[in-house]
Amino acid sequence: MTYQTVPYDAFLRPTLARLDDPGLFLVSQGQDGRTNAMAIGWGTIGIIWGKPMFLVLVRPSRFTYSLLEQSDSFTVCVPAPSQYDALLYCGNHSGRDEDKLAVCGLETVPSLRVRTPGLAGTPLIYECQIVHHNDILAGNLQGSIISEYYPQDNYHRVYFGEILALRALPDAEVLLEPARC
Ligand SMILES: Cc1cc2nc3c(=O)[nH]c(=O)nc-3n(C[C@H](O)[C@H](O)[C@H](O)COP(=O)(O)O)c2cc1C
Fold first, then answer.
1. What residue ranges of the chain have pLDDT lower than 50?
2. N-to-C CA span, the chain
3. Does ligand 1 have an atom closer than 6 angstroms to the CB of 30?
4. Ligand 1, atom nearest to 95 Cα
5. DSSP code of 141?
6. How many helices (H) and strands (E) does the chain have?
7. Could you tell me the domains of the chain?
8. 173: Cβ–Cβ under 8 A, 6 or more apart, which residues?
């Protein structure tokens, strides 16, 4: 499975569409090399400090959070339809309790520019270097958002990942086509 490097914005539309539904894989790796994946539905891609940036929001209760705190990188992997079940699993189980990659039969593929690997067979892999993080502050947040999304605090930490590479499978476009009825 050979990936090719493409411009960071080559697949913006399908990436953002899948962020909304069904979600994307956020892959993190601890100092000891343990690799984990969770589902994310919140995030964005844009330009900050003149750099292409992937922003992801992670609650402190996630195992992923503890791995990101030990790391300077993450990858965001856009799933193929055949990987949606695994994505759902990774979004409903914690790597604190089990090796989700092994359970889901997900294999890793080394990254080109960051230490955290990607997930093999995902059509797109964003390789991101963490350049900043920031916490959502209750005092600066609209009250209705607090009551809807933060009844138990657990305010997200926003990780700013500079996109150092976007890698695509040769058939990424076909894999990411909208489903035909
Ligand atoms: C579709 C979907 C999207 C999700 N989006 C996020 C998100 O953006 N941020 C977050 O902190 N948790 C999100 N979650 C929840 C985590 O994926 C979930 O709590 C997961 O079990 C955490 O795994 P971990 O403990 O191994 O890190 C999402 C779950 C699903 C199913």
1. none
2. 29
3. no
4. 26
5. S
6. 6, 10
7. 4-175 (2.30.110.10)
8. none
| 126 contact partners, CB below 8 Å, separation of at least 6 | 8, 15, 54, 75, 76, 77, 78, 161, 163, 165, 166
Residue 93 near ligand 1, beta carbon < 6 Å: yes
Structure tokens at 177: 């086509």
For a ligand 1 pocket test, name from 36, 38, 106, 156 the mutation site with the most ligand atoms within 8 angstroms of its C-beta: 38
Q: What pLDDT score does 177 carry?
A: 83
Amino acid identity of 171? D
Q: Which atom of ligand 1 is nearest to the CA of 93?
A: 21
Tokens of 126: 């964003």
- State the greatest distance between any 2 C-alpha atoms of the chain, in Å, as a whole number: 48
Q: How far apart are CA 120 and CA 128, in angstroms?
A: 17
- Res 25: pLDDT: 98
Q: How much is the pLDDT for 88?
A: 98
Identify the pLDDT of residue 179. 60
Predicted TM-score of the model (pTM): 0.97
**Tokens 């330009």, residue located:** 47
88 CA closest ligand 1 atom index: 31
